[in-house]
């Protein structure tokens, strides 16, 4: 059931001197902004207005999520810090005697909001900035970055070993629920570890024969994985026979085992394709986060990154007005048109200036920008340029727009350093996209607060 806020003070809180509860300037400004009903509306929309248990008030949840990303704290640590701080209790609308929610409440709310819910919160924040004329939507710059997944560097042998461990762990949970299991689930950890250590020894040789030997050992791991998979498949068949009498939780565990088995089979196929020299178009790079993908961005220090691609759109004063998260490495040029459409829907107009790097250049994008009421289109052309095009890109307006575009690199760097976009601690597209949205929400709200306090 919906609960908007908790404003009634208990006796102990009311008896405290005012100096204890006076918020720092930044938190006071953020508290004022988050009191906007339009910003809280997406959270309230996730709950029934009349049915169910009373929820933790939406105002408290949103402030807890802000503090989590503002200071990059784990859920458990955040609740401990709020419990120990008068200022944070005041900011989150908790009295001295009020109990704090369990850390899993935040996990529940992130799943409940999802990418759609947090995107609605960000649109409400942008609408508030537009109402206050801090952001007018006259400028538009766009760039992409990679949010790395929380995984180790993927190798064929490592992925197969992870898949064997993962499916065995899931299968043991199901085996405990199924009566009279005819095929026990063997612990193959020692066999797997021995072969991984052998690969490490072989690689120290640094010879051509080492590669062949590594592929041979990797194939041994694949055969171990296939044997484990056959045993788990028989376990799944036994569980299906008893599925009608199992409860919902048991059925969910069976589904998890089936998914783990599919992932193991996928990494085994990938390994054999790599040995055969075949191209792998949609490579799985992690069993823990199957939706992460390898992404090449042309960085010298990181030629290949593993995670999710994010498009960041900014307007005036460094506020992020739009973003999108995608799996794999789709071309940047495909993201410009939809982003301009969302900009028009948000601000009711096209921007006067559009500035991107040359990755967004395409004939279709150039025509699309020319058909809109955009005064300056600063998208450098790729490939050979005509004399007229060279003169256009050397013009004063184009160069000013490109200098302003370079500031977007600073915004991405700040999001990486301060708000956790360098490496996501979440796993799975839905949760990662939600976490990215919360980071951008925190960035915009804090930037607004800093403008208010000067």
From TrEMBL:
Superkingdom of origin organism: Bacteria
Gene Ontology terms, MF aspect: DNA binding; transposase activity
InterPro entries: Transposase_11 (IPR002559), Transposase_InsH_N (IPR008490)
Transposase InsH N-terminal domain ranges (all copies): 27-112
Domain Transposase IS4-like: from-to ranges: 304-444
GO biological process: DNA transposition
Name recorded for this polypeptide: ISNCY family transposase
Annotated source species: Sulfobacillus harzensis
Top-level taxonomy: Bacteria, Bacillati, Bacillota, Clostridia, Eubacteriales
């Amino acid at each position: 059931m919906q609960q908007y806020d908790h404003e009634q003070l208990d006796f102990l809180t009311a008896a405290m001197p005012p100096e204890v509860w006076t918020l720092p300037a930044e938190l006071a400004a953020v508290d004022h902004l988050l009191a906007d009903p339009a910003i809280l509306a997406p959270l309230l929309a996730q709950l029934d207005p009349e049915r169910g248990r009373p929820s933790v008030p939406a105002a408290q949840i949103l402030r807890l999520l802000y503090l989590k990303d503002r200071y990059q704290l784990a859920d458990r640590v955040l609740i401990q810090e709020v419990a120990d701080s008068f200022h944070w209790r005041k900011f989150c609308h908790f009295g001295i005697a009020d109990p704090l929610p369990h850390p899993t409440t935040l996990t529940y709310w992130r799943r409940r909001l999802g990418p759609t819910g947090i995107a609605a919160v960000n649109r409400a924040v942008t609408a508030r900035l537009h109402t206050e004329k801090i952001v007018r939507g006259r400028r538009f710059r766009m760039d992409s970055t990679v949010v790395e997944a929380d995984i180790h560097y993927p190798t064929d042998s490592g992925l197969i070993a992870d898949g064997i461990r993962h499916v065995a762990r899931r299968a043991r949970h199901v085996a405990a629920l199924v009566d009279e299991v005819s095929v026990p689930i063997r612990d193959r950890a020692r066999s797997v570890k021995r072969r991984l250590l052998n690969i490490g020894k072989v690689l120290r040789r640094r010879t051509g024969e080492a590669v062949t030997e590594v592929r041979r050992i990797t194939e041994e791991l694949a055969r171990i994985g296939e044997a484990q998979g056959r045993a788990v498949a028989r376990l799944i068949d036994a569980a299906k026979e008893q599925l009608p009498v199992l409860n919902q939780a048991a059925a969910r565990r069976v589904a998890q085992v089936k998914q783990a088995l599919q992932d193991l089979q996928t990494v085994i196929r990938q390994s054999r394709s790599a040995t055969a020299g075949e191209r792998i178009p949609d490579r799985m790079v992690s069993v823990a986060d199957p939706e992460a993908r390898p992404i090449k961005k042309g960085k010298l220090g990181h030629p290949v990154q593993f995670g999710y691609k994010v498009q960041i759109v900014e307007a005036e004063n460094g506020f992020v007005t739009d973003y999108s998260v995608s799996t794999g490495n789709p071309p940047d040029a495909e993201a410009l048109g939809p982003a301009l459409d969302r900009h028009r829907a948000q601000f009711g107009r096209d921007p006067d200036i559009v500035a991107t790097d040359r990755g967004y250049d395409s004939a279709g994008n150039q025509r699309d920008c020319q058909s809109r009421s955009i005064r300056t289109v600063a998208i450098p052309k790729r490939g050979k340029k005509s004399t007229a095009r060279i003169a256009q890109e050397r013009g004063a307006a184009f160069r000013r727009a490109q200098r302003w575009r370079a500031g977007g690199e600073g915004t991405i760097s700040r999001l990486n350093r301060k708000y956790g976009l360098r490496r996501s601690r979440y796993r799975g597209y839905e949760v990662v996209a939600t976490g990215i949205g919360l980071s951008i929400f925190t960035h915009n709200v804090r930037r607004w607060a800093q403008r208010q306090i000067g």
